[in-house]
Design a protein that fits this description.
The complex is a heterodimer of chains A (about 170) and B (about 425).
Chain A (H helix, E strand, L loop, with lengths): L4 H17 L5 H16 L9 H8 L5 H12 L2 E2 L17 H7 L1 E7 L2 E6 L5 H10 L4 E5 L2 H20 L1
Parallel strand pairs in A: 1-4, 3-4
Antiparallel strand pairs in A: 2-3
Helix pairs in contact in A: 1-2
Chain B lengths: L3 E5 L3 H13 L3 E5 L2 H10 L4 E4 L8 H11 L5 E5 L4 H9 L4 E4 L4 H16 L5 H21 L11 H12 L6 E6 L5 H10 L6 E6 L6 H11 L6 E6 L7 H12 L10 E9 L2 H6 L5 H6 L4 E3 L7 H18 L7 E2 L1 H9 L5 H15 L4 E2 L1 H12 L3 H23 L4 H8 L3 H8 L1
Parallel strand pairs in B: 1-2, 1-3, 3-4, 4-5, 6-9, 6-10, 7-8, 8-9, 11-12
Helix pairs in contact in B: 2-3, 4-16, 13-14, 13-15, 14-16, 15-16, 18-19
The chains are: A alpha/beta (about 170), B alpha/beta (about 425).
């Protein structure tokens, strides 16, 4: 996870700024969340789960995730997806790095004719979008998803990867 | 009514680029590479404006303009060139040229000036439009000030970028503990922070300014004690040149922002404004900003627009600087820039932003005693500031050469920034920024 440290910092910083800029969060709430986030990334064990979004919505209760998802639809015109209802598979032609998915709360969950369908909790963070679009060659259809849906999907992907390695 | 423009440039690629620009702006374009054919076209066709290159193999731009003026004395002419000597500029002014645009080209300024010149050439009374423009500018500025409820001095807010900046700053005026101002080199952070100070009409707010020389714990504590006057409820510490601070100073800046460590016992509420020159992500990658500061500065940040994004503000800022410097010298402040000088000021790229503009205006006063300041005087003053140090000279040369290469590559690669970025193995945003 250390290899994604800079990306984790950058993506969380941008997400926080975007939330404040778009009126979804106050700067004082972000300040508290940033402090907790910095504590998390200082600890090697907590680094992989360090997320301003998670801190804001779950630990501090200062961000209404449903409102954030509505905002994604209204302002960015992207679709929403509940990954619990998606049959996940290991995508061909991608060496999916699950630690990167975890670091960015983002998961490419399907591929159609070279276009990837990607779900993310961090769509409002420009570095996350750019990183994945560069990685997937620019052909991406984005979906917003909830933290819990992403977290369960990543667990399932981990199981799939382990099973595939055992085979 | 559509107006007609004649474009003369022997460089096919650049000619095509100019043609595209004017056609997309709904002009009827006659595009030629041969000056003799262009002279024939001017004699035979009704042309509203001529755009010409200077360096051409068969005829110089100056010679071409002389031919144009012989045939159609009233048709306005704009010159677009990579570089022009002062003597050439002087010659051009004598020949009544309407605008000089140096590459890299600012398309919006070029189109704006084109429209102005055509309108002026069609008008009977040449003075009437000036007064109309003046009142429109005043109205814009008054609108911004009325919207904010306070005057805003650091930018005249005549461009969208600066007006948006002023509004954003005003909306963030009640920031909790820290605010970051991110600008390019030469940004006038102190003046901007003075505007933030005017957002608060009462005496309960105190501002103190700390540069890297004065930024140590003892100095800050002493200034905080001094600022703790009866009635003062909050002190805002403006930290300048954060990117140049030592690691100890950066740690101190974080402590000050969080009222921790030596600042824990300070009896008044403290906020900080971090002023940084440069791209914060690049500074972070270069280890000049550590993780703590990088995240801390993301709480409430505002990007200060560079001057090149505020073209409509530049001439007003230059005039304000002129008046201020004249006032400081105890001289009458009725000097002004002529139209060609104003054009040049507004379309120059100002890599060093406000600091460079200020230094140029200062040099103009030193070098020229003209009541109406000409383009030659401004150009000479600017050249003298650029030539001031060997380092500045080298930097200016490298920056210009880099931009030339980038533009050439962009032309070869279908003007697709992603391809240019891939070619040079760099990020697309850096290419976009350089080509802007």
């Amino acid at each position: 996870m250390q290899q994604h440290r800079a990306l984790i910092l950058r993506s969380n910083r941008f997400l926080g700024s975007s939330l404040v800029n778009q009126g979804l969060l106050s700067d004082s709430d972000l300040e508290v969340a940033n402090e907790k986030f910095m504590e998390a990334i200082q600890s090697p064990e907590r680094l992989k789960n360090a997320s301003v979004l998670s801190i804001l919505s779950h630990d501090l209760g200062q961000l209404d995730e449903a409102r954030l998802l509505e905002h994604l639809v209204d302002e960015y015109s992207i679709g929403l997806i509940d990954l619990n209802y998606v049959e996940l598979r290991l995508l061909p032609n991608t060496e999916l790095d699950l630690s990167l998915c975890l670091a960015t709360s983002t998961l490419p969950f399907d591929e159609v004719d070279g276009t990837y369908l990607v779900a993310s909790c961090y769509y409002m963070s420009a570095p996350v979008v750019k990183h994945w679009e560069d990685l997937l060659g620019g052909k991406v259809i984005w979906y917003g998803t909830s933290i819990i849906s992403m977290s369960r999907a990543l667990e399932r992907m981990q199981d799939l990867t382990t099973a595939s390695e055992e085979e | 009514m559509r107006h007609s423009v004649l474009i003369l440039d022997d460089d096919t690629d650049f000619n095509n680029l100019l043609t595209d620009i004017f056609e997309q702006a709904d002009y009827i374009v006659t595009s030629l590479e041969d000056p003799f054919k262009a002279i024939e076209a001017i004699a035979d066709t009704e042309i509203d404006l001529v755009v010409t290159d200077h360096k051409m193999p068969e005829m110089s731009g100056v010679e071409f303009i002389a031919q144009v003026k012989k045939r159609q004395p009233k048709v306005p002419v704009i010159m677009v060139s990579g570089f022009l000597e002062n003597d050439t500029i002087r010659d051009l002014i004598n020949r009544g040229i309407g605008g000089v645009f140096l590459k890299p080209l600012n398309i919006f300024s070029l189109l704006e000036r084109t429209a102005e010149l055509i309108e002026e050439s069609k008008r009977v009374d040449p003075d009437s439009q000036d007064s109309v423009e003046h009142s429109e500018e005043e109205e814009l500025n008054e609108n911004i000030s009325a919207e904010l409820g306070v005057p805003f001095h650091s930018f005249p807010c005549k461009s969208k970028a600066s007006a948006h900046f002023a509004e954003k700053l005003y909306n963030l005026r009640n920031f909790n503990s820290n605010l970051s101002l991110i600008g390019e080199p030469g940004t006038h952070f102190s003046e901007i922070c003075e505007d933030i100070r005017t957002f608060y009409a009462n005496e309960k707010e105190q501002f103190i300014y700390l540069g890297i020389v004065s930024f140590n714990a003892d100095q800050v504590l002493s200034m905080l004690v001094e600022a703790e006057q009866p009635g003062v409820e909050r002190v805002t510490c403006v930290l300048l040149d954060v990117e140049l601070m030592t690691n100890e100073q950066k740690a101190l800046a974080i402590a000050l922002s969080k009222s921790e460590g030596v600042f824990e016992s300070v009896g008044v509420s403290v906020r900080t404004i971090f002023c940084v020159s440069g791209d914060l992500d690049v500074l972070y990658d270069l280890d000049q900003i550590d993780e703590d500061l990088y995240i801390l500065m993301g709480t409430a940040e505002v990007i200060v627009p560079p001057l090149r994004e505020c073209r409509s503000d530049i001439t007003v800022m230059a005039q304000q600087l002129l008046a201020k410097l004249m006032n400081e010298k105890g001289l009458s402040s009725d000097r002004r820039f002529d139209a060609a000088a104003r054009d040049f000021l507004s379309q120059y790229h100002w890599d060093q932003n406000f600091a460079q503009l200020k230094e140029t205006v200062r040099r103009v006063l030193e070098l020229s005693s003209e009541h109406v300041i000409s383009l030659v005087a401004v150009s000479s003053a600017l050249q003298s500031t650029i030539a001031a140090t060997p380092r500045a000279r080298v930097e200016a040369h490298l920056s210009s050469a880099r931009n030339d290469y980038l533009r050439a590559t962009a032309i070869l690669l279908d003007s697709e920034n992603s391809k240019v970025a891939s070619f040079y193995g760099t990020e697309e945003r850096l290419i976009e920024s350089a080509l802007k």
